[in-house]
Amino acid sequence: MKTGLQVGLETSLPPEAALQKQSRWNWQEVNMASRINTRLTDAYGRTLDYLRISLTDRCDFRCVYCLPPEGVDPIKQKAVLATDEVLRLARVFAALGVCRVRLTGGEPLLRKDIVSLVRGLSTITGIEELLLTTNGSRLAGMVGLLKQAGLKGVNISIDSLQRQRFSAITGRDRLREVVCGLQQAVKQSLKVKINTVALKGLSRVEVHDLCDLAYQLPIEVRFLEVMPLCGSAWQPNLGLSLSTVRTWIEEKFKLVPLARHYQPAESFSLQGGVGRIGFIQPLSQPFCHTCNRLRLTADGTLRLCLYAHASVDLCRPLRQGASDREIGNIIKAAIWHKPLGYEVLKNTTNHATLPKIRQLGG
Ligand code: SF4
Fold it and tell me: pTM for this structure?
C-alpha cells in the first residue's frame, strides 16, 4: 500500500521522503535526515507562507463551474479532520513560517465547529491573518461571532447581482441572503472582497452593478478567469475575457493602478470611489513564480498546487502518533515537489483529469 506520496513523484523524491518511503512511517529515520529551518522555501525559491485549509468538501450551492456533472467522490465523514486535528496541523505549519491562513470548502460555514476553529486558529503563534472564503448564504447570522473569534477578512463569491442569473449559476435562489451577508461583513469592518467568476453571459450592466458596489463600499470586487478544474464541465469558451470586462468598466469608471506585491490580483482604486477593483488571470497572466500557497484538504492531504495531483497525506501520520516535528519534516520533504502550475496546465491534454476545485477550496 502507498505511503503518503502519490504516484509519479517517487522517482524524484529528496532523500528524506525516500527514507520515509523505504521505512513506512519510521519517523526517526526521517527525523535524523531533515534540515530544520523556519521557512518553507521550495525548489523555485518561493517562500510558502500562505495556507488554504478546505474544511469540508460539502457545499449547499451547485455552481456550474465548480461541481462537475460526473460529481466528485465525497470525503467520508470519518476521514474529515476534527477540530483539534485542524488546529494541530495549523500549528505545525505556523512553526514552519506560515503566517496567513484562509478557510475554504466546499462551503466552510457548513462546519458546526467553525466559530471554535476560528477562535483556535486566531490564537496560534505566527498566524497573523485569518481569512475565510464563502458563498455567503449563511454569513449574515454568523459574521459577528466570527469577527469576535478573530476572523480578519472574508471573500464572498457573487457571480451576478441579478437574481435569475445568480440562481442559474449557483442552482440556488439565495442572492438576498448573500447580499445580506455582505452588508453585515462590511458593518463588522472585516476586510471584504467579492469574487466574481467571469462566465460567458456576464453582461455590461452586471459588471457596472458590481463596480457600483465597490464605488460605494470599502470592498474589493475581483473578476476571475474561469479555471479548468471542473472535470468534464470545462469548456474553453466557458469564460468571458477579462479584457472585455475591463473595457466595460473603463466606460464608466476611472481605474487607478495600485501596487501588486505577492497577491494574484492586479488591483485598482476607483477614482472618486471608496473601494477597489481587481483582476485575477491565472490562465492568461499566470502568477506561479510568486506563488506562496499551500492547500490542506478536509481529509488532511497537503496539495502542492491547484493544477497538480502532487500531494502528501498528513492525516495518517497525525493519527498514527507522529510528533509535530516529524509531520513538519514530511511537509518540508513534500514542498520540493511544488510545481509551476502553468507548466502542468500547459502539458495537460485532457482537462477533465485535473484536480477538482470543489475539493481543493480554490
Ligand atoms: S497554479 Fe499552482 S503554482 Fe500556480 S499560482 Fe496556482 S497553486 Fe501556485
Answer: 0.89
For residue 354 and ligand 1, the question of a CB distance below 6 A is answered with no
The three cell numbers locating residue 15 = 532523500
Cβ partners under 8 Å of residue 313, min gap 6: 3, 4, 300, 301, 302
CA-nearest of 10, 32, 85 to 317 is 85
Residue 350 half-sphere exposure, CB side, CA atoms within 13 Å? Answer: 4
DSSP 8: T
**Helix/strand number for the chain, H first, E second:** 13, 12
pLDDT band at residue 282, thresholds of 50, 70 and 90? Answer: very high
Q: CB of 355 closer than 6 A to ligand 1?
A: no
Q: List, in order of start, the domains of the chain with CATH numbers.
A: 4-17+25-360 (3.20.20.70)
Helix locations, 189-283, DSSP H: 204-216, 242-252
Name the residue at shortest CA distance from atom 1 of ligand 1.
Answer: 341
- The reply to whether ligand 1 has any atom less than 6 angstroms from the CB of 307 is yes
